[in-house]
Amino acid sequence: MATDTNADAIPASDPFAIFEAWFAEAKASEPNDPNAMALATATPNAAPSVRMVLLKGHGPDGFVFYTNFESRKGGELAANPQVALLFHWKSLRRQVRIEGIVTEVTPAEADAYFASRHPESRLGSAASDQSRPLPSRDVYMERVEAIRAQYPDGSVPRPAHWSGYRVAPHALEFWQDREFRLHERRRFTRTDGGEWTSSLLYP
User: Fold this and answer.
1) DSSP string covering 134-193
2) How remote is the C-alpha of 174 from its chain's centroid?
3) Is-contact 169 100, C-beta < 8 A?
4) Which of 44, 71, 93, 201 has a CA 20 to 30 Å removed from the CA of 161?
5) 115 in a structural domain
6) CATH at residue 52
């Protein structure tokens, strides 16, 4: 007979505290990019697309990632700010799903994060017309070298079209793998008053 235990049950508590605890465990156990998350967007006529991005900040006010605003995802987010995020930590056999609305981070936040990046990453971002057709990789690398020549000390300024988004969630769902596929799911939703309620879901 299958047995269950509540020893590691997903608590009906603060969803951000649960995320913080799970994320800390992921950073200790995931071999690569524990902050990698799938970002799903959609056009105004509901055509979806999804790609991996990196979480660069999080807290009760939301989950932050950075990108080129002129990319495909940037265009979709400008037209439809509703998004979904998914973390999958295979080492822990856990998932976190997040649904919410994006807003732009402040220019000061974007400047600070861009300045913290490796100089080669700043060069790559400044040289890229993200999501647009590229005749050959040589063309891209030539643009990188041209910008490097402009800023030999590595102080590449943040391009105006490169910034970040903060996803303010209205729902978070935590999924924990269990033996014999008797998985555990708990979904949190934000009320109109800003409070969080939760319930278990069938796996």
Assistant:
1) -S-HHHHHHHHHHHHHH-TTS-PPPPTTEEEEEEEEEEEEEEE--GGG--EEEEEEE-TT
2) 16
3) yes
4) 44
5) no
6) 2.30.110.10
Kindly state whether residue 43 falls inside one of the protein's structural domains: yes
Helices 119-127, 137-150: crossing angle, 10 deg rounding: 120
Q: Is the pLDDT of residue 2 over 80?
A: no
Distances (CA, A) of 9 to 89, 103, 196: 17, 33, 18
Q: What is the pTM of this model?
A: 0.89
185, part of any domain: yes
What does the pLDDT look like over 119-139, one tens digit per residue?
899 888 888 888 888 889 999
- In whole angstroms, what is the distance from residue 68 CA to residue 160 CA? 9
Dist. CA 174–CA 146, nearest whole Å: 46
